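Q: A reviewer asked whether we had any structural model of the full assembly, not just the individual parts. We don't, so I'm hoping you can provide one. Inputs are below.
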Amino acid sequence: MRWRIGRLIDARRYSIVVVLVFAVLASGAAVPDFLTRENVTNVITQSTALGILAIGQTFVILSGRIDLTVGQLLGLIVVLTCDVAAGRSDWFVAALLIAFGVGAGAGTVTGLLNNWLRIHPLILTFGLLSVLQGIIFLYTDRSVGQAPAQFVWLANGKLGGIPVAALALLLTTAVAHFVLTRTVIGRHVYAVGGNEENARRGGISADSVKLFAFMTSGLSAGLAAVFVAGRLGTGFPLAGNGYELDAIVAVVLGGTSLAGGTGSVIGTVAAALLLGIVSNALNLLQISAFVQIVIKGLIVIGAIVINQPSEEWR
Amino acid sequence: MIGNALRISRLAIVAAVDRFAIWIVLLALLALATTLSDAFLRPAYLGNVVRQLAPVGTAAVGATFVMILGGIDLSVGAVISLAVVICAVQMDGQIANIPWALCVTLLTGAGIGLVNGLLAAFSRASPFILTLGTSLAVYGLTQIYSGGTARGIVAPQFREFFNYRIGGVMPVLGLMFLIMGVIAVLMLRLTRLGRSMYLIGSNPRAARISGLPIRAVTLVGYVLSGVLAALGGIALLARSGVSSTFAGRGLEFDVLAAIVLGGTTFEGGTGGVGGTIAGMLVLFVAFNMVNMAGLNYNSQLLIKGVIIIVSSAGYAYLKRRG
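A: Here is a predicted structure for the entire assembly that you could use as a starting point for your response.
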């Protein structure tokens, strides 16, 4: 009996993976040219940045918070790294350090403010989103600099026939999944998101855990920015617009509860890939971008209504 | 006895501080503003403030109902955008088309609110994601309807009417916003519907047991939010006179910031429209004060974020101390 219930819960948690497999098969059957090597590579490289960003967001949402800053943070890092590197490949390491440093630094600031000010994370991170947007535009209002060649290789290159971006996404997913399920801090993220009061009584420092989650989210924005910069090739100030909502959608579609405490990064990445596949298939079918937005909205609504009938979030 | 009385009076003070904190902040801010410039007390300035606030403010009044119910409506920005385009296209520059255009726009808002309400009332899924989904769909519909470009022409009389200043001071647009606010306050305070909204938000289980029509009230809340967002779109069109497919983009979070600042919480069951309007005024006056320094748009974005964070933090601090 126990075994069966365990199985059921697992099936529910990873139902998005099943949907993903169906989507791949259906698209392969219905859309010509979908299952070509070139197109599959395309889908994965296009979904990598969102996938990585959504992994970081998963940490924050699991801990019971939400982070709207990541889109503009990603945009800021794209602009900074491209401007500093200015296309020089010997500046690759410096650019990488900037990406991770600014990402983790901004995440730390968000986390500390969240702990100190005690205002709702939606309001706090919306305010910070506006601040970051202001900083980007004060820095530049047009595309600046050029991504170092290594960024371009990471985003578009191949290693033994496999896209580097796919490997990076796989590696990030594996590391994040390991941290969440096999380390103390990871278990604490679930505990704090599930019931903060109980976690605190159990001796967990809820503030440190939430700080860790926001830092991870900032760091993931830094890593995702590397791939966005590599694809764009230049520091475009609007590069991150809207990414934060896409990331939240991927997290929730992937089965993570907005109330915190339940979910997984595997579901998140599957959902990010699903969104990429749907958009790619609609593109191949030559459906207009406008109609695609409507379809995306309907998918979000439909998936939530079917997949999460008993969630309450306030 | 005495201890009890003291405790009760202390509770009363706490409740009062809780309730009026945002108004205290607003008065302090206005006092500070008048020391910087006497322009802040001129009737023309105040008339201008309500004119500027009318579009987002009207939408915020509607979204407050949903928040009191314990829900959230992230589609208001998208509804504002769609309303601007629909109203302008249907009007097509002709005065005779104005009533028709207004009706169609408001009905569209009601329709989107109805969809949100049905989803929220019957699915139990998170309204945050549900309304994020409808906001995407509505945004896409706006693009399809307009073909991606700013279409439609505003009749000159439409602008003239809404921007006419009664007594040289109060624009019709601002008056409409204030009247909407007063109606909403009265509805929440005095009617059965308003009281049920508070009860459902604060304790859904008790509301169900006492036989309140939870689903019907939820529907009404979301429909009102949709209609008032559409009205906000009409106000925006009247103020700017230009149709744009992005007019309302991102405004849902501005609305949310004002509502929460005004004392309505994400948990539902508390707060009200008066607080929301005060919250809007606080954000707006603070923003105006900083703007007098003559900053460019980019710095304004930065300042806007800081103001939202600082004022929310200050308000949260006041509430904890009280």
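A: Points you may want to mention in the reply: Chain B touches chain A through 48 residues (CB under 8 Å). Residues 21-321 of chain B form a domain with the ABC transporter involved in vitamin B12 uptake, BtuC fold (CATH 1.10.3470).
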